[in-house]
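re: that chain from earlier
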Amino acid sequence: MKKGIILTFFLLLPSCLALKAQSERPPSYSIEIKKVAILPFIMPQRDPLLSDLVVCPLTGYRTKAGNIEKGAQDKIYSALKRSLEKAGFHIASPLSVSIAIHEVKEPYTAEGIMRIASLLDVDTVFVGCILRFEERVGGPYGAERGASVAFTLAIWKFPEGMAVWSTSFDETQVPLSENLLQLPIFIKGGYRWVTADELLRQGIE
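^ sequence. v structure.
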């Protein structure tokens, strides 16, 4: 299982909270983050060639299709916002983000994200896609099916107007007898079958 996205994010930050860009940028290239906006997570698109897959329209990441339970978008937004606030980042209010989005014709394009950043006076924008959010079937010690959560996240920096980092979280809890690599999920979850909310928090934090 991958490290939580926020933990991975901070492993890329020096003490001054500057994000090191990925390998396509020179090693000396760094970005200071001061004020952040989180856009509401969007829904995936069906893969045009493989009907059992969905695609993130932001990053192109593909994964197996599944249910997205009601309220999942709000849950992932709230989990990400809490983690960033705990880390000391200043986050634009959801109301101001909503107003800015409604003033932009295509908010999830490069031009749209740049316009939103300008309207909110932020230097960093988090955008993402919720691909799957399925609750476990059964109880914590006897589930028929484990929770399943998948989402993507990308970070855009301004005034550069470019995506500097992106990642994905894609996990479905299965019995340890099927996949020993899932031991961290069981340990973090108290050696039981976790809920979708708990799996989400493990991915974010």
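The chain is about 30% helix and 30% strand.
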